[in-house]
Design a protein that fits this description.
It contains eleven helices and two strands. The chain is mainly alpha-helical and 355 residues long.
Length: 355
């Protein structure tokens, strides 16, 4: 088939006419080689925009956009199990490493107090075991973010994301199992925050002080106990006054919303991690480390600031504790939002070829 367009045929005719007008044989040879190279370069640069019609046979090819990551045709198709399998190792390593670091730091800070009152050696082991639940409530969301961000950056680098973007709902099929796993981890964390951590904190205070605690603080109460305490303080302010009673009730309500917000933080961190991996496919390990420091620092700064504002009745407990998760959603939206750019659609241009 004649694949040259009208302008190509006119160009070739003009070059042939000019070639016949050159008397010197060496000059004619150099001009012919240059003309051939120019025609080939022009044809290749314009080839993706052309459709060649053949009788009764068309084959659609997807041509990667300029600057896109080349796809590996031998790479196996990533399914849900494969995506989840890739996340298990970085998730486990990150969670274990962060938990070990924070646990060691906490136990080392408590050693002088335990030594001063002559606590037996078994107390340190019990202290370490009781500290794991509240430390894991912070490190598990961190580990989810690092694992998702790292794995999606790798998927982008090896061409899996480029292939997924060329199929309807392809990227969603990659993100869905990750969000499902994050939701399961959030459910486990939520149960730990509402049931396990209050009981562990009660025993932890007894181990650290050497005697049973007198009364319960807000971090030793379950959700039901926190709600009952908030209602009681608001309904019977007594001698403490209305303002002080409102602040105490707000402190109980802050703890309620904090348990839920931290429990569901795994989902929000997974969304941001996937958005970062999709947005910066060539980021590598340094991008993951830098993003982790910024995201974790900003998230927990929002939690601390929100708690302080709620305690002073500046913000409602709900807004104060869910603000950090809302910020994560905004960040994910900004990372995934794109202007309508014609260049963004060049990664999936149909081209028909016939024989």
């Amino acid at each position: 088939a004649d694949i040259a367009g009208p302008r190509h045929r006119e160009l070739v005719r003009g070059m042939v006419s000019e070639l016949e007008c050159i008397p010197d044989r060496g000059e004619r040879r150099r001009f012919a080689l240059g003309a051939i190279a120019a025609i080939l370069r022009l044809s290749l640069s314009d080839f993706r925009d052309r459709k060649v019609h053949a009788p009764d046979e068309y084959v659609d090819l997807l041509v990667p956009a300029q600057g896109a990551i080349p796809m590996n045709p031998l790479m196996p198709k990533s399914d849900r199990r494969e995506i989840l399998r890739r996340h298990v190792l970085p998730l486990a390593i990150t969670a274990a490493s962060l938990t070990a670091i924070l646990l060691t730091n906490f136990v080392v800070r408590q050693l002088p107090y335990l030594s001063a009152r002559g606590a037996p050696s078994g107390t340190i082991a019990e202290l370490s075991l009781l500290s794991v639940p509240f430390i894991a409530a912070m490190t598990i969301p961190m580990a989810v973010f690092v694992a998702v961000c790292w794995v999606f950056a790798r998927l982008s680098a090896d061409g899996t994301i480029a292939q997924a973007r060329q199929k309807p709902g392809g990227v969603r099929r990659l993100v869905a199992p990750v969000l499902g796993a994050a939701l399961c981890l959030s459910a486990i964390t939520l149960v730990s925050n509402t049931q396990l951590i209050p009981r562990a904190n009660t025993r932890l205070l007894a181990v650290m002080s050497g005697r049973p605690p007198e009364g319960k603080t807000d971090r030793m109460m379950t959700i039901a106990e926190l709600r009952e305490a908030a209602r009681e303080v608001r309904g019977n302010p007594g001698l403490m006054g209305v303002v002080r009673a409102s602040r105490m009730a707000a402190a109980y309500e802050v703890e309620i919303h904090k348990k839920y917000a931290l429990g569901l933080a795994c989902v929000f961190f997974a969304i941001v991690g996937a958005a970062l991996g999709l947005r910066f496919p060539r980021g590598g390990a340094w991008m993951v480390i830098g993003a982790s420091v910024v995201v974790f620092g900003g998230y927990y700064a929002c939690l601390v600031a929100g708690e302080a504002l709620a305690d002073t009745l500046t913000l409602s407990p709900f807004v104060a504790m869910w603000l950090a998760n809302a910020v994560l959603l905004v960040v994910a939206f900004v990372l995934t939002w794109r202007r309508d750019d014609p260049r963004a659609t060049r990664g999936a241009e149909p081209m028909a070829i016939g024989g």
